[in-house]
Amino acid sequence: MTAAREVDTPRGPARVTLHRAGCPRGLLLLGHGAGGGVDAPDLVTATAAATAAGFDVGLVEQPYRVAGRRAPAPAGHLDEAWLAVVAAVRPGHDGPLVVGGRSSGARVACRTATTAGAAAVLCLAFPLHPPGRPERTRAPELEGAGVPVLVVQGRSDRFGVPAEGPDRTVALLDGDHGLTKQHDLLGPAVGEWLATLIP
Predict the structure, then answer these.
(1) Segment 102-160, tens digit of pLDDT
(2) CA angle, corner 167, sides to 163 and 169, nearest 5?
(3) How far apart are CA 168 and CA 145, in angstroms?
């Protein structure tokens, strides 16, 4: 079953499309990339895998996207809106809360994970640095999540490829930042990892 609702945030209304699992044992909230939407192929595959693993999945559209703008809001605004969505959607869901998203959405989830009370973070195509600018690393965001992290990354991602680390698992797929290949591997990687989070 799928249901959409708007959520008031300090940065305007966000939209959450909730995909319900048959017997939910947790909640996964996923954000979109900077210029994309929640219909990105990797988000669709991750949603299907998560509901099969027993997680309700909320696909979150940031206020700037709901308002019809393509240019992303500043990081602080994104984080503020995200936390308001978490606070609105979390009640009524038992089990672990997992946050995540693709690209920019993954960065938001990492920056706010501990404040949100998340048990883990799912990063799809984490943008480790701007293309061709490895010196401008965003590794501190990833390393600062404070909870276990799964990163699903394309081997030839021009935004860089994070390494495994403490509490961080990296699943590499063929392809680039779009994560449009090997969804037969992406789905199981997400589903099996989520299953380890259920008590």
Answers:
(1) 999 999 999 999 999 999 999 999 999 999 999 999 999 999 999 999 999 999 999 99
(2) 45
(3) 10
Closest by CA position to 13, among listed 86, 73, 72, 62: 62
Question: Alpha-carbon distance 12 to 165, whole Å?
Answer: 36
Burial class (CB in 10 A: 0-12, 13-18, 19+), 116: buried
pTM greater than 0.90: yes
Residue with tokens 């404070």: 146
In this structure, which CATH number among 3.40.50.300, 3.40.50.2300, 3.40.50.1820, 3.60.15.10 belongs to the domain 2-195?
3.40.50.1820
Q: Are 62 and 71 in contact (CB under 8 A)?
A: no
Q: What is the largest CA-CA distance in the chain?
A: 45
- pLDDT per position as a tens digit, 28-47: 999 999 989 999 999 999 99
Write out the H or E segment, with its range, that includes residue 119: none
CB-based contact 150:128 (threshold 8 Å): no
Per-domain residue ranges of the chain: 2-195
Give Cα separations from 74 to 10, 25, 71, 107 (angstroms).
13, 33, 10, 12
The tokens for 49 are 């895998």
Please report, for residues 45, 72, 83, 149, 191, the alpha-carbon distance to residue 186 in angstroms, rounded to integers and kept in the order given.
7, 26, 27, 15, 9
